[in-house]
């Protein structure tokens, strides 16, 4: 904990508020260690139970995490808005940033022409009573899902994949319930599960998706929901294979006590077939976002599922945000209908595949086996994340430490390939190899 920030308070509410304030202002940075319960209680002149209640409340809200022997720490990305000065510092000057997990802006379809056409033909504004999912968008969305073998179900829209997952978990689960999540898995989802007060159960992942034995163990441990990434899994790039899907469907078949959520966030950018699990359980939902192929600012995802699940999500939306903007819906519909946009997305998918496969091949030349079956990320196991990230930073490359994505999985780093060019692959692979297996200084025994 920063020596400049002193905790205070005589009640659990005051202590937790002080810690939250420190996180918000940046005085307590992500990952900062907090004092042990008894030590802080002695400093503040309160009972250990008072400090324990403050820590527990912040853990339940996802601001703190208990890290075993490492004690209690601020979560890497706590769910509280921080001042700009407290946000993640940029990479060193001149460094290449491969840590962000974003698509290549150069490959996103231009929105200007479609926005201009929409402005010329928008018509009168919708009323509160008329707003909702546009029938023409529903028709096109169903056709696109049907082409990938996603079973028909009730349909609604959410403000992106993570918004949909949050609404689904909130509609079915309560704080303290267990959720089976991929390990390693999407950092935003792990943060969301913590913020909702849910208990994550990690499910190991290989290149073909969640391991069947891992899912079975999570179910035996009481998981009430299972979140699976269909393709382009973040961070490993795994994609559910046909054989894995068949085995998972056999395990999950007919269960009435489990909410199954599938996230197909990469959609058209994933150059592998889709093998959906949708419909394997009584309660299920399949989400497809438009952000990765068409642009991060397009906050829209199509959600299909069983009647009860979709009705819960749509009903909760109606009494909150109300609906996804029909202006946004019309823009997405125009993008879907434009053959030129389809071609741009196809080329982008091919480009990501070349970069990803090129990096995997270059790493193999150094004897390193990384993972990246689909999507825009490569996952490279390393002996020590801190030393690897530091060595790469010194060599001019910024990558994401695997700790952001792991529960119990082995250490690794995530490399986003979307901004790489062909000439970058060989020097990057060499830098990664040096970071994984550093050359000892002269005079030291090997």
- Please tell me the overall pLDDT: 91
Instruction: Describe the global form.
Output: globular
Helix content: 25-40%
Q: Which range does the strand content fall in? A: 15-25%
Structure classification: alpha/beta
Cα-atom Rg, whole angstroms?
Answer: 23 Å
Largest sheet, in brief, is:
8 strands, mixed
- Strands, count: 15
Instruction: Quickly count the helices.
Output: 15
* Cα end-to-end separation: 37 Å
Sequence of secondary-structure elements: HHHEEEHHEHEHEEHEHEEHEHHHEHEEEH
Unreliable spans:
84-89
Q: Which strand order do you get reading across the main beta sheet?
A: 4-11-10-9-8-5-6-7
Overview of the structural elements:
The protein has 446 residues and is an alpha/beta fold. It is built from 15 helices and 15 strands. It has an 8-stranded mixed sheet, with helices on both faces. The protein has a 3-stranded antiparallel sheet with strand order 12-15-14, with helices on one face. A two-stranded antiparallel sheet has the order 1-2. It is globular, with a radius of gyration of 23 Å.
Brief synopsis:
The chain is of the alpha/beta class.
List the keywords.
446 residues; alpha/beta; eight-stranded mixed beta sheet; three-stranded antiparallel beta sheet; 15 helices; 39% helix; 15% strand; globular
Detail the topology: elements first, then pairings.
Elements: H1 12-25, H2 37-44, H3 48-60, E1 64-66, E2 72-74, E3 96-97, H4 112-120, H5 135-147, E4 154-158, H6 161-172, E5 178-183, H7 187-195, E6 199-206, E7 209-210, H8 212-220, E8 223-229, H9 242-252, E9 259-263, E10 283-289, H10 291-294, E11 301-305, H11 307-318, H12 326-337, H13 339-365, E12 377-381, H14 385-394, E13 397-398, E14 400-401, E15 412-416, H15 425-436
Parallel strand pairs: 3-13, 5-6, 5-8, 8-9, 9-10
Antiparallel strand pairs: 1-2, 4-11, 6-7, 10-11, 12-15, 14-15
Helix pairs in contact: 1-3, 2-3, 6-11, 13-15, 14-15
